[in-house]
Amino acid sequence: MSLSGGAGTTIIIRLEIDTKKVTLGQIATAIGDAGGDIVAIDVTRANRQMTVRDMTVNVIDPLQSDLIAKAAGSLPGVRVVNISDQTFLLHLGGKIEMASKIPIRNRDDLSRVYTPGVARVCMAIHEDPSRAHTLTVKRNMAAVVTDGSAVLGLGNIGPLAAMPVMEGKAMLFKQFAGVDAVPICLDTQDTEEIIRTIKAIAPTFGAINLEDISSPRCFEIERRLTEELDIPVFHDDQHGTAVVMLAGLLNALKLVGKRLEECKIVFSGIGAAGIACTKILLAAGAVNIIGVDRFGVLTRGTDYGQESWNWYASNTNPNDETGGLTNVIAGADVFIGVSGPGVLKKHDVQRMAKDAIVFAMANPSPEIDPEEAEDYVRVMATGRSDYPNQINNVLCFPGMFRGVLDCRASRVTEKMKLAAARAIASIVGDEELNEQYIIPSVFNPHVVDRVKEAVIAAAYDSGVARRRRTEITQTDKTDKGDTYLVP
Ligand SMILES: NC(=O)C1=CN([C@@H]2O[C@H](COP(=O)(O)OP(=O)(O)OC[C@H]3O[C@@H](n4cnc5c(N)ncnc54)[C@H](O)[C@@H]3O)[C@@H](O)[C@H]2O)C=CC1
Ligand SMILES: CC(=O)C(=O)O
Ligand SMILES: [Mg+2]
């Protein structure tokens, strides 16, 4: 599986060089022959016989770094000390930190932020627990919780290896919506233990974002937590993905002039994302959806030994099609991939209906490379940031959480998800809509505000908002909105 990006990268190779045995010219030639473009050389240590140099090298594909290191390291008198790239360097020590809002400059400050002053605040919350929302970080803090069981499309790589993704999500929450998010990677994949643990930490948070927890456990975990907690619990891979996929598809269909109700839609990957995307499409009016997982097409009347797949089989595939992806893709108007890399082949795409739409959303490597599909499809989208039309849940979760925290929603309803999808779709104006632009960029400054506004309005309509509407101010984004009178 290739983890490479399309944009190239820069690597730094630290070499210990015996200057009596090899010249810099020989090293440069070896690196160049292996496909590297040297852009800088720095000496980090030198004596009469030995120098240590950092060679900064541009490469098209990060996987080339191994070839380059091997080429340099095989020269006599060269030892590769270390190899790193920009991506690894920016992960050094992690990507986020905790910061205080108020400096502690003297004993007076100390006595307010901590004991004895803090005691009065504790007792105020003890007397009225709803004050936790105004007097603690709960108001603006979300937990990003994973068990590491379905990390991107990398599979069950465990909680430690999941951490960089969860830190990344926390950065996105903060940068795009001002939400303070804490990555929490659990060392258990037991459903009951996950539920117990999240319930136990819930008092700290205003909302819970479940991330990269594999299906079918994710369904039970989310359902139980939603029932048992009084704060929103949102499984991003289900609902964030579904919201953004629907937004993209509504715009893509507008562009190609097809109606959702009349489209044949084929899904690859009937897991967390696939099931939630299917549910939102059915709610939006889709009729002919066919799901394919590793074993083939899900068909009515088959017992899959799993509630979520049995539900899927009875609610999709109205024409009882059978076989595998290659069979059912014929004549399909839309392909939605939330499975894994390379599942969709060029010959499959060629057999889709005219003006085909392909959303190959597996991360980091899509179901088909856009270059391979582009001649045969009208609209192509992936989950990645290095191609046009990025269908990624990052377009939803920052605004969704901003919204639920601001109106202090108790849960996320279907109405709120549909409202978020329509809000995202509406950002692309009719005059702007084209094959390369069906969905706004995550950097579009309107995305978070539109999603937030739509979510808040739908939360009040759904009766789940617990804050008076007039209390919600623009300043919530910077977390200075509430005033609180000393009891
Ligand atoms: N672009 C986006 O915003 C998002 C993309 N995704 C991607 O979707 C994929 C699935 O994620 P989840 O649903 O959370 O995982 P999951 O583990 O809940 O479900 C994955 C499903 O895909 C199936 N699958 C895997 N390889 C397959 C193959 N070769 N052919 C057919 N089915 C296959 C599995 O059997 C499973 O049912 C991942 O690659 C993930 O990165 C997930 C969430 C958001
Ligand atoms: C984007 C995302 O959440 C995923 O690929 O799992
Ligand atoms: Mg995810």
UniProtKB/TrEMBL annotation:
For this UniProt record, the keywords arranged alphabetically read as follows: Metal-binding, Oxidoreductase
Cofactors, names only: Mg(2+); Mn(2+)
Q: What is this protein called?
A: Malate dehydrogenase (Oxaloacetate-decarboxylating)
Q: Which PANTHER family match?
A: NADP-DEPENDENT MALIC ENZYME (PTHR43237)
> Gene3D superfamilies attached here?
Malic enzyme, N-terminal domain, NAD(P)-binding Rossmann-like Domain
UniProt family annotation? Belongs to the malic enzymes family.
- The lineage's top-level taxon is Bacteria
Which InterPro entries does the entry link to? Aminoacid_DH-like_N_sf (IPR046346), Malate_Decarboxylase (IPR051674), Malic_enzyme_CS (IPR015884), Malic_N_dom (IPR012301), Malic_N_dom_sf (IPR037062), Malic_NAD-bd (IPR012302), Malic_NAD-bd_bact_type (IPR045213), Malic_OxRdtase (IPR001891)
Q: What class of enzyme is it?
A: oxidoreductase
Domain Malic enzyme NAD-binding spans what residues?
238-460
Q: Domain named Malic enzyme N-terminal: which ranges? A: 93-226
Enzyme Commission code(s) on record: 1.1.1.38
A GO MF label: oxidoreductase activity
